[in-house]
């Protein structure tokens, strides 16, 4: 019996080990000995020894192995050119495989470029100022039964902080009046503009804190005098054309003239300071005496009043907040609405939703994770198809290894092939990004700059992403190919386990489907929540009601006269004079006293000023008492059920006749009615305690209930009547249902993103699944032919393939369902009123996956199953 464990000739083995570089031993000696053992078994010891000696001598021919000290670099320029050439040939040979991979990578990289630009743009907000780490905004926490957050402060706080303490190197107060009416006068001609971002009454130190450079004028002088202003280049061109704007005059609300004393460089898009008109703060005394007062101003907070400070270096934030807390004890000692003044870092302003931040960091995290999912999905496609294709390349690998190729050479060859595919995907993605980004900005209402070829950060990101994708997608298939045993490869006896195994591909397919299903679950939950906000009963009627803004300076009598005339217009069904709609971003918070109590209640109340027609116009439901009577003064009040609960009354009927004192004592009247709760803000917030009364000084709108069939003509008639009364102002109106929809702009943007990315993830998954099924079908062509000859039907053959993928989808669902539920349940917690995640959500996710997989698998399998079995059997 032969001893198959005998060693080859020692002399040649020593010769090989002596002249072979140690690194070479790891790659070649094991293969030589493996081949030797096979030969001993088949040919005998003597013949195996001869062939071993020949193999060793052949290895030392030029270009294979060189003596120690001259061991060649496997990645020298010649080899790299060779890798690229072979890689290009293999890609060209397998066009379908290459198309699937390039398309998947191009789509995912395009999304990655958008997401990188989106995240980078949001992270760049207000980071261009000098000393941004020392710039803070003073904000207010209102502590009552709940904590409320305001980005504003009482107007005197900034002046007191400047005079009393030295912590602030610079301090500036800014009051922004939104939707400002600006007029220009040229003889008898009047040109009107509405500035939605408003006009900012600013102290001069504002421009010492923030880096908004002046192109004309000196920042120490431009706003030093009352009725002076500086405007941006864009506004200067808009108002005055090509004329020099310095020295020109414009009017605010047709009452307050301002002379332009400086021109600012246009504000960048990545700043949360949006006003492009800055006027002298000293003019605020004429515009709003109460707000400008350093004594009366402690009594409340106006939303537009901000205070910024540039702290001195190494100043303790804790100490500053301690000295700010003293103002509460001094100036608001009896108020139950306890203020806590805090310092908000500049870097936090854009992201903190408590203080009106435009973009929550959690949304950026969601977008980043989605982008990562898409990249992983494309890489999974690549790995799946590459390992599936490896069987076709087994003999190529076997020949290369027998001729002396190292594992590292084979590995790097496949990495370079992957690199070529990745590079093609990057080129297509760059072209797509450059082409479609203007439409993306328009679709999402953003101003994200994308300079694919000139932004150094984006270029570095794309290069880094390309390298990461190349190694992530190419490493495992490269290791699989490089690890083939040459004898088994040349004999075609490699098993599926040897080439990565179908278990590996099963795992990758499960990962791919799990990612898609998580995205689908997220899309379904957000869609259901948006539908819930639109279809839920808000407690009032929002349909076909338009709010027409009153003209500035409208008197009580003018408003009543206009109301009478509007009611005569055909198509007007109901009309009310009011502060705002029942649900609105506008809010007048107030503290009240109940009955004969000398102390204020410990909760905040929202006052809705409105006349007696408010209840019927918005179809509010009375649950107790009656409606208020028409009046020009505060004589009666209506409250909501939330107020009844806050007052700890047993029932709505118990509230009737009780007295309420509000607005610092200027309102004192009995409760005559209780209305059913209605949503006064978005579904993110609880329903506030509401007080409705006839406070005419606060009427700002005509709420008009229209006949929708004639709405277009009715609004035109109202506009004509309105402008006849106020020719020097701008007619403005908005539908109530449209204003409510604006509560959820952030959620709508997130929904659009998830919809698009889910669709792209499904496309990438379909491409990969199609390629994998095509390969499996080609491997089982003969088996399909035999089954058909033996009586197998097309449906039976489809099921053979389909059941495998069905099991994988179910496994993916079992992974995706808890992950999707956890993420989306956490997202829903941001809403005080929200839908539930029901079974239908998960059924829809798995159903979509099954339908997509079935459509992808069935097309390829049915085409093969319907083919003539004779042709199938002749293939081999």
TrEMBL record:
Source species, domain of life: Bacteria
**Entry keyword Transmembrane:** yes
Annotated ranges, domain ABC3 transporter permease C-terminal: 369-484, 756-867
Name the keywords, alphabetized. Cell membrane, Membrane, Transmembrane, Transmembrane helix
Membrane topology classification:
Multi-pass membrane protein
Its subcellular locations are: Cell membrane
- InterPro entries tied to this protein: ABC3_permease_C, MacB_PCD, Macrolide_Exporter_MacB, Permease_put_prefix
Pfam families referenced in this protein's UniProt entry, alphabetically: FtsX, MacB_PCD
Q: Which residues form the MacB-like periplasmic core domain?
A: 98-325, 515-684
Q: What is its main location?
A: membrane
- Transmembrane segments annotated in the record for this chain: 99-119, 364-386, 410-437, 457-484, 505-526, 756-778, 805-824, 836-862
The keyword Zinc is assigned to this record:
no
Name assigned to this protein = ABC transporter permease
Q: Which organism is it from?
A: Ohtaekwangia kribbensis
């Amino acid at each position: 019996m032969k001893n198959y464990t005998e060693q080859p000739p020692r002399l040649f083995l020593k010769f090989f080990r002596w002249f072979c570089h140690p690194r070479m031993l790891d790659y070649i000696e094991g293969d030589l000995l493996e081949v030797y053992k096979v030969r001993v078994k088949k040919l005998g010891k003597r013949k195996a020894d001869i062939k071993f000696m020949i193999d060793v001598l052949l290895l030392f021919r030029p270009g294979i192995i060189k003596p120690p000290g001259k061991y060649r670099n496997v990645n020298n320029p010649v080899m790299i050119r060779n890798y690229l050439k072979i890689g290009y040939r293999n890609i060209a040979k397998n066009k379908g495989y290459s198309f699937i991979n390039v398309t998947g990578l191009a789509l995912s990289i395009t999304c990655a470029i958008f997401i990188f630009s989106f995240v980078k743009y949001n992270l760049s907000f207000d980071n261009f100022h000098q000393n941004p780490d020392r710039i803070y905004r003073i904000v207010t926490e209102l502590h009552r039964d709940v904590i409320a957050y305001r980005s504003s402060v009482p107007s005197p706080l900034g002046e007191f902080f400047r005079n009393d303490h030295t912590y602030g190197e610079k301090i500036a107060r800014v009051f922004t009046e939104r939707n400002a009416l600006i007029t220009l006068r040229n003889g008898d001609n009047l040109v009107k503009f509405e500035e939605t971002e408003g006009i900012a009454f600013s102290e001069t130190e504002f421009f010492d804190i923030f880096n908004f450079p002046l192109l004309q004028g000196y920042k120490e002088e431009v706003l030093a005098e009352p009725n002076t202003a500086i405007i941006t280049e864009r506004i200067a061109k808009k108002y005055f054309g090509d004329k020099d704007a310095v020295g020109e005059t414009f009017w605010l609300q047709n009452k307050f003239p301002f002379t332009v004393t400086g021109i600012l460089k246009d504000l960048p898009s990545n700043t949360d300071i949006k006003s492009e008109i800055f006027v002298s703060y000293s003019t605020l005394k004429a515009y709003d005496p109460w707000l400008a007062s350093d004594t009366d101003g402690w009594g409340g907070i106006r939303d537009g009043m901000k205070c910024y400070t540039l702290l001195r270096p190494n100043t303790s934030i804790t100490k500053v907040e301690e000295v700010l807390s003293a103002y509460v004890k001094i100036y608001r000692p009896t108020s139950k609405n306890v203020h806590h003044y805090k310092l908000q870092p500049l870097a936090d302003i854009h992201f903190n939703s408590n203080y009106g931040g435009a973009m929550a960091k959690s949304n950026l995290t969601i977008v980043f994770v989605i982008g990562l999912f898409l990249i992983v999905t494309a890489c999974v496609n690549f790995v799946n198809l590459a390992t599936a294709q490896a069987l076709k390349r087994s003999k190529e690998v076997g020949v290369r290894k027998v001729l002396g190729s190292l594992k590292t050479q084979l590995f790097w060859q496949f990495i370079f092939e992957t690199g070529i595919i990745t590079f093609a995907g990057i080129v297509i993605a760059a072209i797509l990004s450059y082409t479609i980004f203007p439409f993306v900005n328009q679709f999402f209402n953003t101003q994200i700059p994308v300079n694919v070829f000139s932004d150094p950060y984006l270029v570095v990101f794309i290069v880094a992403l390309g390298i990461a994708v190349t190694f992530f997608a190419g490493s495992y298939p490269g290791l699989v190919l490089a690890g083939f045993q040459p004898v088994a490869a040349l004999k075609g006896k490699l098993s599926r386990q040897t080439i990565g195994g179908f278990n590996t591909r099963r795992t990758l397919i499960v990962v791919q489907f799990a990612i898609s299903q998580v995205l689908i679950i997220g899309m379904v939950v957000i869609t259901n929540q948006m539908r819930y906000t639109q279809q839920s009963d808000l407690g009032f009627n929002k349909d076909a009601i338009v709010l027409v803004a009153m003209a500035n300076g409208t008197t009580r009598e003018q408003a009543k006269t206009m109301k009478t005339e509007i009611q005569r217009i055909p198509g007007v069904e109901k009309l009310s004079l009011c502060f705002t709609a029942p649900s609105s971003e506008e809010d007048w918070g107030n503290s009240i006293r109940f009955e004969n109590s000398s102390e204020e209640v410990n909760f905040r109340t929202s006052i809705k000023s409105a006349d007696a027609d408010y209840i019927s116009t918005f179809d509010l439901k009375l649950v107790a008492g009656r409606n208020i009577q028409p009046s020009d003064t505060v004589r009666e009040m209506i409250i909501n059920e939330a107020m009844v609960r806050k007052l700890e009354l047993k029932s709505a009927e118990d509230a009737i006749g009780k007295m309420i004192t509000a607005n610092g004592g200027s309102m004192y009247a009995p409760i005559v009615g209780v209305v059913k709760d209605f949503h006064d803000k978005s579904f993110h917030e609880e329903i506030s305690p509401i007080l409705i009364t006839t406070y005419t000084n606060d009427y700002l709108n005509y709420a008009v209930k229209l006949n929708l069939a004639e709405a277009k003509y009715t609004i035109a008639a109202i506009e004509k009547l309105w402008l006849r009364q106020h020719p020097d102002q701008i007619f403005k109106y908005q539908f109530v249902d449209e204003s409510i929809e604006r509560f959820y702009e952030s959620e709508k943007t997130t929904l659009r993103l998830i919809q698009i990315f889910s669709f792209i993830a499904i496309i990438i998954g379909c491409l990969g699944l199609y390629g994998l099924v095509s390969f499996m079908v080609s491997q089982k062509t003969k088996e399909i032919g035999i089954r058909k000859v033996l009586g197998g039907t097309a449906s039976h053959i489809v099921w053979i393939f389909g059941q495998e993928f069905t099991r994988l989808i179910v496994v993916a669902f079992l992974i995706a369902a808890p992950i999707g539920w956890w993420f989306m349940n956490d997202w829903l917690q941001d809403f005080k009123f929200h839908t539930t995640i029901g079974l239908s959500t998960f059924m829809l996710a798995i159903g979509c996956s099954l339908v997509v997989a079935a459509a992808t698998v069935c097309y390829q399998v049915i085409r093969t199953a319907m083919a003539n079995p004779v042709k199938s059997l002749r293939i081999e």
